[in-house]
Amino acid sequence: MTPSIPETDRDVANAPQTPDLWSLLDLATRAAQAGGIEIRRRLGNVTGVSTKSSDTDPVSDADRAGERAVVELIRRERPQDGLLGEEGSNEDGTTGLRWVIDPLDGTVNYLYGIPCFAVSIACEQVTDGRVYPLVGVVLDVTSQEVFTAVRGSGAHLDGKPLRATEPVGLQDALVATGFAYLPESRRRQALLLTELLPRIRDIRTRGSAALELCQVAAGRCDAYYEDELKVWDWAAGALIAQEAGATVTALGPDGVLAAGPGLHRDLAPLVAPTGT
């Protein structure tokens, strides 16, 4: 089952009983650090580079080694949980919990030596066909900043509370976005951007969906949208942004929009994908 975008008006009180969320957060944080160690070890000496969905969608030995390190730690401590990882880990599990793993979000940045890439780990509970995001961790591998969230308990950066910007008018909004790997998708996204850019303060694109969502949570940008993603790109970051007060919703069938409530309302009709 595909994880869902965290629901803005979710009823935390009626969520199913779960293991101690703080212990899950601790495991997710340690697993992210383990993955980050493997990524840092290979920085500047990357091997095994190949492509996936297109010639512009790379994967490397660093991605694979990072996922192995994350999975080994989770398997050692919670062997019955499910797994969904970008680099092939896919097991259903028997506990109703599943770990959604992006071992290296921002691989292109990593290959170029651009210091903007992350390890992203979320733990979610699936009950009666419904997905409840429980915890999320995004480790900025370069800065070593650790963004975290626990369902119903807020979002934090290195232990300090986060809050998304609100209110902010459309004309004053610093908006982040990203682009798909397929040429026809990029063409469509670029056309949308030409309509949006004159109506906002400016655009940023950093090449890591997980970190973009955390920037929204930290108030370092006002909104983020991207309409062609995979669940491991946003599973942790979406919860972090939401717990920081952003409204987070699906954007088309495969994307996400995150912004403070007022800005989200103004942006949603402007960034909705067309021609997909």
What CATH calls the topology of the largest domain is: Fructose-1,6-Bisphosphatase, Chain A, domain 1
Record the strand order, biggest sheet. 4-3-5-6-7-8-9-10
Whole-number average pLDDT?
Answer: 92
Helical segment count: 7
Report the principal-axis shape.
Answer: globular
Unreliably modeled segments = 8-13
Tell me the CATH superfamily of the largest domain: Fructose-1,6-Bisphosphatase, subunit A, domain 1
How many structurally independent domains? 2
Major sheet details = 8 strands, mixed
Strand content: 25-35%
Strand element count: 15
As a percent range, the share of helical residues equals 25-40%
* Radius of gyration, CA atoms, in whole angstroms: 18 Å
Order of helices and strands: HEEHEEEHEEEEEEHEHEHEEH
Provide an overview of this structure.
This protein is α+β, with helices and mostly antiparallel strands. The strands form three sheets. An eight-stranded mixed sheet has the order 4-3-5-6-7-8-9-10, sandwiched between helices. It has seven helices and 15 strands. The two termini are 23 Å apart. Helix 5 packs parallel to helix 6. The protein is 34% helix and 26% strand. Strand 9 (155-157) and strand 10 (160-161) form a beta hairpin. The protein folds into two domains: 12-161, 2-Layer Sandwich (Fructose-1,6-Bisphosphatase, Chain A, domain 1); 170-271, D-Maltodextrin-Binding Protein, domain 2 (3-Layer(aba) Sandwich), CATH 3.40.190. The protein has helices spanning 21-42, 61-77, 107-112, 183-196, 209-218, 231-243, 261-271; strands at 50-51, 58-59, 82-85, 90-91, 97-105, 118-127, 130-140, 146-150, 155-157, 160-161, 174-177, 202-204, 223-226, 247-251, 255-259.
